[in-house]
Give the backbone structure.
Amino acid sequence: MKRAPTLVDVATRAGVSYATVDRVVNGRGSVAEKSRASVLQAVADLGYIRNVAAANLAQRRIYRFCFIIPEGTNAFFDRVCDIVRAMHPSAGTDPVQLVIERVAAFDPAALAACLTALAERPFDGVALVGLSDAGVDDAIGALRDKGVAVLTMISDMPTPARDAYVGIDNVTAGRTAGALIVLSHGGRAGRVLPIVGALSARDHADRLSGLRETLAPTDLTFAPLIEGLDRHEVVEARLRAALAADRSITAIYSAGAGNAGLIRVVAEMSEAGRRPIVMIHELTPRSRAALEDGLIDVIIDQRPEDEVAGTLTLLRCLADRRPLPQLPQIVPAIYLRENLPAAVDPALLKGSAA
Amino acid sequence: MKRAPTLVDVATRAGVSYATVDRVVNGRGSVAEKSRASVLQAVADLGYIRNVAAANLAQRRIYRFCFIIPEGTNAFFDRVCDIVRAMHPSAGTDPVQLVIERVAAFDPAALAACLTALAERPFDGVALVGLSDAGVDDAIGALRDKGVAVLTMISDMPTPARDAYVGIDNVTAGRTAGALIVLSHGGRAGRVLPIVGALSARDHADRLSGLRETLAPTDLTFAPLIEGLDRHEVVEARLRAALAADRSITAIYSAGAGNAGLIRVVAEMSEAGRRPIVMIHELTPRSRAALEDGLIDVIIDQRPEDEVAGTLTLLRCLADRRPLPQLPQIVPAIYLRENLPAAVDPALLKGSAA
DNA sequence: CCGAAAATGAAAGACGTCTATCAGATATGA
DNA sequence: TCATATCTGATAGACGTCTTTCATTTTCGG
C-alpha cells in the first residue's frame, strides 16, 4: 500500500520541475510541447490523480451550484426545493453553496432569460428541468462556453446540449403504469383514460408512449387523451366532461400534475359507489392523503431525493473536471396504500450526496 | 459570506493557545477543566466544524472499511460483492479502502469469529448482515469498544448492538407483495403459498408478517408455509410437494433465496398450461431471465446499490465522528416485465457515495 | 551573433489540521 | 519553601496543492 503519487512524483518522473508540471496540469503559462508531452506521459504512467481535497484546501474553494426549479401551483416542485434546501447541511464535509432560482413553468423564454442572467454570476454548475427550445439551447451553450457545468434533471433535453441528465426513464415509467393497469384488470377488458399536462413536455409524452406500448397488445382500449396543463381546475373540468361522455372507463392514468382536480372528481365517484382504478405520479401531501383515503390506487414517484443527490454528485465531478461516474439508475418507487413510507418532516431531512 | 471558523479562531475566542485547543478537541494531554470549558464554549459560539479534508490531508488518513458478506449459493450476495468492489474507484475524491470478507450464511459462530478476527486489523468500520445471536452481539460490542464503527445492512439487529442500519423495511416489503397479489386477483378469491429461507432470519420473517397483515382482511387464504433454507434443491422439492398436495394455489410469494428451484417448478407448470402468480425478491441474472421469459410476474428488489452507497456514507460519518445524516429511505424497486432496467455490466458500475 | 521572447527552475507562503517538542507557568503536597 | 506534577504557550514541520515571484536558460528571428 504505497502512497498515492503526487505532483512532485510526476515532476521527478517527467524530469522537469514542479513548476512546469503545474503549468501543464493547470493550463497556465507557456510550456514547450515536448515538456507537456513528458508530463502527461508521467501522469499516465504513475496513474496520478489530483488530490481534490488538498486542491480545494489551497484555493479555499467553494462550489457554487444553482438549481432552476419551475414555479407554479405544483407541489412536486415545492418538494424538490425542500430537498435541495435540505442538502445544504449535508454538504457537511465539503463546501458547497446551493442557490435555488424559480422560473415560470413551461416558459422557455423565462428559462432562457434566467440562464443568461446566471452567466453573470460565479456559478460552477447549474441544474435545470429540461425544456425543448432553441433559445434555451443557446443560453445553455453560452453558459457551458463559460465553463459552467449544465445538467438536466427530471426531464431531459437533446444530448449534446447538456453535460448530463439525472432522472428516471419516463418511457419505462409509463410502461410500469401500463403493467399495473393490466395487472389490476386481471385479464378482463377495460378502458383507460390518459391525462397529461401537455404533450410538449417530454416527460409526459414519454410516459404516455410507454403506456400505449404496454397496453397495445391487450384487450384494454383508450379513451381520448386529456391535456390538463398541469392545472387542477382544467384537469377537473375536462375529466368531468370525459367521464360524463364515457361511462365505460375502468382506469385513469395521470402522467402530469394538477391531480388535485382529479382527486376531487374521484372522491365524488367514490362516494357515489364506484370509481375506476386511478394511478398518478409523484408523492405529495395531497396525493399521499388520497392514497391513504382510498381515492387512488397507485402513486409512481420519481424519488426526487435520489435525483437531487445524483445531480449534486455529478455537478461536483463536472466542477472538478473528473470523469463522470455511472450513477445507479434511478428507479421510480411504486407506492400502494400498503407500502407508503412514513411521512418525513422535510426540515429534518438531510440527504446524502453520494 | 465569511470564512468558516478555524481552530485558530477558536483559540483566539477562547483566550487560549492553539495547542490547548488541539488538546481539547483531539483529547490528548491534560487540560484544566476551566480551559476545556472555554474552548468548548468557543466552539459552540463560533459554530466551528472541523475541516475534515484538511485533517485527512495532515494525517494522510485512509478510511479502512470491511464488508462482511454471507457466502453461499446466493446470487444476490454475489451481486452485493460486485457493487462493493465497484465502489472502489468511486472513492475517487477520497481515500477509502474496502475489504470484503465472506462468511458462511446463517452461521452465527462463523460470523462472530470473523468479527473477532477483524478486531486485530486496523479497520475504521465494519458492515455486516445482521444475525440475531448473543455471540455476534458480543463480538460487535468488542469491536465497537475498540472504536470501530459497526453497522448492519440488509437485515437488522436489535438497535443497541449496532451504530446504524441501512436497508429496506422488510415488513413494508411484505405488505407491498401482498398488495400486488391482491391487485392481481382483482377481487377474486385465491390461495397464497409463502416461502421463506428460515423464520429465524429477521428479514424473511418481517416480510412474511407484512404479507399476512395485508392479506388478512381479504378473501385470500394461505397454504402452509414452506421453509426452503435458501437452497434451491430444498425449495424445489418442498414446493413440488406442496403444489401436488394443493391444486388451488393461485399465487406464490418467495421471501427468501433459492429461487432457482422455484423457477424450475414454475417453468414446468407454465409449459403444462397454467401457473400461479409468482413474486420473488432480488434482481439476479436468473430472476431477471425468469421475469423476461414470463415465468414469474414481479421481482421486488431491495436496491443493493443504494444500500451499499448509504452504508459507505454512514461509515464515513461514523469514522469522522460526525452526526449521522438522515439518509433518504431506501424503497424497494418493483420490477415487472415492462420496467426491467437495462442490464448493467457490473464491471462498469461506479456507484455514488452520495 | 545579438536582442527579445519563450520556456524553465527554484522557492516561498498560503490553506487548516495534526503531531511533536520544549520551555515556562501554575498548582500540589510535603 | 522546595520538589514535583500538572498545565499552558510558542513554534515548527508535515500533508498536497495552488499561486506568485524572480532569476535563469533556451530558442529563434533578424
